[in-house]
Design a protein that fits this description.
Layout lengths: L19 H10 L4 H20 L3 H21 L5 H24 L6 H25 L14 H4 L6 E8 L2 E7 L7 H15 L6 E6 L2 E9 L25 E6 L4 E4 L14 E4 L6 H12 L5 E6 L5 H4 L8 E3 L2 H24 L22 E6 L2 H7 L6 H6 L5 E7 L9 H6 L2 E4 L5 H7 L2 H5 L14 E5 L12 E3 L4 H10 L9 H11 L1 H4 L75 H17 L4 E2 L1 H5 L9 H13 L3 E3 L6 E3 L2 H7 L2
């Protein structure tokens, strides 16, 4: 069955905007013509009927029985409609068939038959026109009132509502509603959304309502009958490797496959403020995994510094990314010092921005300034398990930062399980203008994180609780309001992918600027100056680790292609290596050259993707049932790409139906060719 057949159907009232006056009048008159055409047809049919059956007794009996049977059938067929429609239909059929029987036997112009036709026919046709007019005003546009809006919309409390437009996609239907002025508002449609979901037999999160910003008598209803987020999507790697933090930070996908993004700095041209973010979700909702995705994106950018805190879980969550963080506060004393450092850095940073003529942070701030001074990178301060920090300090500890940091090129992220008034002050919550809400316990908890507009439109994170990790709603700066109530799902990262991004972009990441460092040093002292700088993990391939303090002068290839060769070692900073130290033991070898030792030819992106497809076919032909990125990386000389790129291609194969997730992370079942054909893949 096609996806379109799964979509709910609502009656519609169409409005023409073209075709000239004649076309417009014809369109307006078309719904009222059928009764008149049937009346004229009945009169014309009486002429041949009379010439054939005027003197036939058998025809007389047959026509009489047919008239009675047709009337009875109409009465029986109308039992599912309203009593008024049933009576009207049966009476019309009885009158028309009785007149036709009499006209066929006696002649249409005999006695009163002609007058009955000329008076009764138009009267019956006009009665149906009147009924149609009243039915349109009530939006009872379907043949059966139980299935039309007069049945469906009236059933859910939206009587007299008209559907004036629709858009149908494979798994999404959008309807434009015109509400009766003065009787219903867009708020009434939002309140009726749960009942509409019940009437259409879809999940509570499948129906969303978006008020028209120009009219409170219009609204848009979006219905998504099938959940396309059930399958997790592996993180495909950095969305803008080596780019600016001013660009979108891709953290997942919406139900229609479009990227879910965060914007941290503000943008004057887009009239977008810098973002302070509240991340909320109960235990098991997947918010920590989503945080790793966002942070992995940030540490792949060239002009942002990340300070992160987790006094509750220490390095349990942040562990893989610790080498990429400028400052990681993993206990309460260092977390308190970090908060004091941020507070002190805000006026110092705003003073620097004013000195160089910036109204707010922009990418040019991170570049060398006109007087030769070093730039100032953006600062993201991420507080995991912030409830412990608030509980052991002050419920207003983040309020001042939230109110003042945006103008200083600082984004504050506060993550906790429940942002109730007993956990965080309402002033702080009001300062966090954006929210990223995962599954919560009940609708009251949802109200702590999401704005009323999202909840009224149908956002229901309490429907997921902890049963659907990674499902979320994103109501944030830069995200269109009609997406606030659209479910998304965050990417799923692997430890290998995080290790790769930490090592690969070590030469790209910015260091904290002197202005911010001086302010932090002044208030935090040795807690800041002696903060732990975590080294790259030993499991990270040495080839991916820039030597010394070198900085790559160009952004890495977005496709993950490593174009460097042995001749670039000196440019990479060999002076930072102690030649007297013994080499670490070799644990694994990845061959990027050809077996005969010749230099590997540069492979284009299309060729690399084709190599992945060929490898999958080879694995299937060899009888393999499951594969993962590891199997593809064992043949990396075929495509010359990094593990992050390979993982992204594996994710694409999952989405296209070539592979299917298993219960084991990083392992995927190969879908046989015959099953793909049957599924239409």
């Amino acid at each position: 069955m096609s996806a379109q057949r799964d979509l709910p159907q609502l009656p519609m009232v169409y409005h023409s905007r073209g075709g000239g006056v004649g076309g417009y009048l014809l369109q307006r008159a078309a719904p009222y013509l059928p009764p008149w055409l049937l009346t004229a047809g009945t009169g014309l049919a009486s002429l041949p009927a009379h010439s054939l059956w005027a003197d036939s007794a058998a025809a007389s009996a047959g026509l009489t029985l047919a008239s009675a049977a047709l009337t009875a059938s109409t009465w029986w067929a109308g039992k599912s409609t309203t009593p008024q429609r049933r009576m009207h239909s049966a009476a019309t059929v009885a009158a028309a068939t009785s007149w036709l029987t009499a006209a066929a036997l006696a002649g249409p112009t005999t006695g009163p038959l002609q007058s009955l036709y000329l008076i009764g026919g138009p009267a019956l046709a006009a009665s149906w026109n009147i009924r149609h007019l009243l039915r349109t005003n009530r939006n009872d546009h379907a043949d059966g009132e139980g299935e039309g809006a007069g049945g469906l919309l009236e059933k859910v409390g939206l009587a007299k509502t008209m559907v004036t437009g629709s858009t149908v996609a494979p798994n999404k239907a959008t309807f434009q509603l015109q509400l009766p002025p003065g009787e219903l508002t867009a708020d009434d449609v939002a309140k009726a959304a749960p009942r509409l979901a019940s009437a259409l037999d879809v999940s509570p999160t499948a129906v969303r309502v978006h008020p028209d910003p120009d009219s409170h008598a219009r609204a848009q209803v979006t219905i998504v009958p099938r959940d396309l987020l059930k399958t997790t999507t592996p993180w495909p790697g950095p969305s803008a490797p080596g780019g600016s933090v001013a660009g979108p930070v891709v953290v997942g996908v919406y139900e229609d496959g479009t990227p879910a993004v965060l914007y941290f700095p503000g943008d004057t041209e887009q009239a977008r403020n810098a973002m302070h973010l509240l991340v909320m979700g109960m235990t098991g909702s997947g918010k920590s995994e989503a945080a790793l995705v966002a942070l992995a994106e940030l540490v792949s950018r060239k002009d942002v510094v990340v300070w992160a805190s987790d006094p509750a879980k220490a390095d349990q969550t942040l562990g893989p990314l610790l080498p990429a963080l400028d400052w990681a506060a993993l206990d309460m004393p260092s977390t308190v010092a970090m908060i004091e450092a941020i507070t002190a850095a805000i006026p110092a940073r705003t003073k620097w921005l004013a000195k160089y003529g910036y109204k707010q942070w922009e990418p040019a701030c991170a570049e060398v300034q006109a007087d030769g001074s070093p730039g100032m990178p953006y600062l993201v301060c991420w507080f995991e398990e912030a409830a412990k920090t608030i509980r052991e300090t002050d419920d207003d500890v983040f309020t001042g930062i939230g109110q003042e940091a945006r103008s200083a090129g600082v984004s504050l992220v506060v993550s906790l399980q429940r942002a109730s008034g007993t956990q965080i002050s309402t002033d702080t919550r009001a300062s966090l203008g954006s929210s990223w809400c995962f599954g919560v316990r009940d609708d009251r908890d949802a109200g702590f994180a999401l704005p009323d507009e999202a909840l009224d439109a149908g956002a229901s994170p309490h429907a997921w609780r902890d049963k659907r990790p990674g499902y979320n709603y994103l109501a944030a700066n830069g995200v269109p309001e009609d997406l606030w109530a659209t479910p998304a799902r965050s990417y799923l990262t692997s430890r290998e992918a995080l290790d790769w991004v930490v090592a690969t972009f070590a030469g790209v990441r910015a260091e904290v600027d002197a202005t911010t460092a001086a302010a932090a040093r002044q208030v935090a002292g040795s807690v800041f100056t002696d903060r732990t700088r975590h080294p790259l993990t030993p499991s990270t391939p040495a080839a991916a680790r820039p030597a010394g303090n070198s900085r790559l002068t160009t952004a890495p290839d977005p496709d993950g292609l490593d174009d460097a060769d042995d001749e670039t070692d000196e440019a990479e900073g060999l002076d930072g290596i102690d030649p007297e130290q013994p080499l670490a033991p070799v644990k694994s070898v990845i061959r990027f050259g050809t077996p005969d030792g010749r230099t590997r030819r540069t492979v284009s992106t299309d060729e690399a993707r084709q190599a992945m497809t060929d490898l999958l076919e080879e694995f299937e032909a060899a009888g393999m049932a499951e594969v993962g990125p590891k199997e593809f990386m064992d043949h990396c000389d075929r495509h010359g790409r990094t593990r992050g790129w390979v993982s992204g291609q594996v994710a694409a194969m999952v989405l296209s139906g070539r592979l299917q997730e298993t219960d084991r992370p990083g392992r995927y079942r190969i879908i046989p060719q015959d099953q793909r054909v049957l599924a239409g893949v």
